[in-house]
Amino acid sequence: MAIPTSRQTLIDYCLRKLGAPVLEINVDDDQLDDRVDEALQFYTEYHSDACIKTYRKYKVVADDLTNKYVTLPDSFLFCSRVLPLTNMSMGGGMFNAKYQMMLNDIYDLQYAGAITNWEMTMQYLELLDMTLNGTPPVRFNRNMNRLFIDVEWGYSLNVDDYFVIEGYEAIDPEAFTDIYNDIFLKKYTTALIKRQWGENMKKFEGIQLPGGVTMNGQKIWDEANEEITKLEEEMQLKYEYPPMFFTG
What we know:
alpha+beta, 2 domains, 3-stranded antiparallel β-sheet, 6 strands, about 45% helix
């Protein structure tokens, strides 16, 4: 079996699944490309294997201070939070609270139980930092590709500052071609092409071909539409992340 590893090999697989080359599949090349795009879009939107959690480092530039937002790549699906812009609020460098804890207590770690106290103190310091500073509120919309960080730009964020964006990014099928061999994607793309085939053939409903064969595009369309409905329900039940999964 030829394993799909590209758009074209996926199209070839779907056409063979529908009966080609034994049957002529009456779908134009542009229509085939459109159906693959549609299938990939649906797959990326809902399938849990289509995205990956990512941490992207970002360096603030002058335009960001003017715009008061940063532009993310098209592959970014969701931004859950911006990780701490500064270290512990209780000071930096050698006066940082965490640094002082390690400096003063590192000797005590050789005694049993000291590591527990140290870990609890570290968690308490992190709790204080989160309570007093928290994380900056963020807003992100995929259609805009803009991440708005609700802080005082120029004070909390300045040129050449760094921060880390936590979110989910779509996997590029051209870079990771195993996506084209995903069992759901193959079934869904085949069903979309089949429905397009039925849509095209419906225009010639009732025309009799040589040999007495009559076209029945409506039946092909109905079968494909039923398959698509079942596959989309299967996506929601088996492959889609829970609605609140992306909440940071």
